[in-house]
Amino acid sequence: MRLTFLGKDTKDDGSPTLYLTENGTFLIQGWIVTDSEVTGRFQLSDGETLVEVPHKLMTHLPPGTAVPLRSDILLDIGGTYVFRGPLVVNPAVLTQLDMPDH
Fold first, then answer.
1. What is the average pLDDT score of the chain?
2. Contacts from 87-96 at CB under 8 Å and sequence distance 24+?
3. Under 8 Å between Cβ of 58 and 97
4. What is the pLDDT of residue 102?
5. What gap in Å lies between CA 77 and CA 74, rounded to an integer?
6. In 16-76, alpha helices (H)
């Protein structure tokens, strides 16, 4: 799957980053959420994870694209969003990501 870089909201060369996939979906690179208070709000399937990103990252969405408001995929916790989605494990996709050393 080919990714198109849309934008980054980074501090100290870290995540998060927003990409558009060749399928017209979005790939969000952010901080993996492990806080049980937050993860407990979602019923994750095998292979799914939660990532947290600043609201500001969503300013890189293409014009006319709205942040989804469905509570089964999104949680707004102040200045950040938590998104639910499949964990990226495909090596060909992972090589296209700008992954920080940490």
1. 89
2. 87/47, 87/48, 87/49, 88/27, 89/47, 90/1, 92/1, 93/1, 93/3, 93/27, 96/2, 96/3, 96/19
3. no
4. 56
5. 10
6. 36-39
pTM, full prediction: 0.86
Measured between alpha carbons, how far is 44 from 14 in angstroms, rounded to an integer? 25
Adjacent-strand bridge partners of 50: 84
Q: Which residue has the higher pLDDT, 25 or 67?
A: 25
Buried-state track 31-59, b at ≥16 Cβ within 10 A, e below 16: eebeeeeeeeebeeeeeebbbbbbeebbe
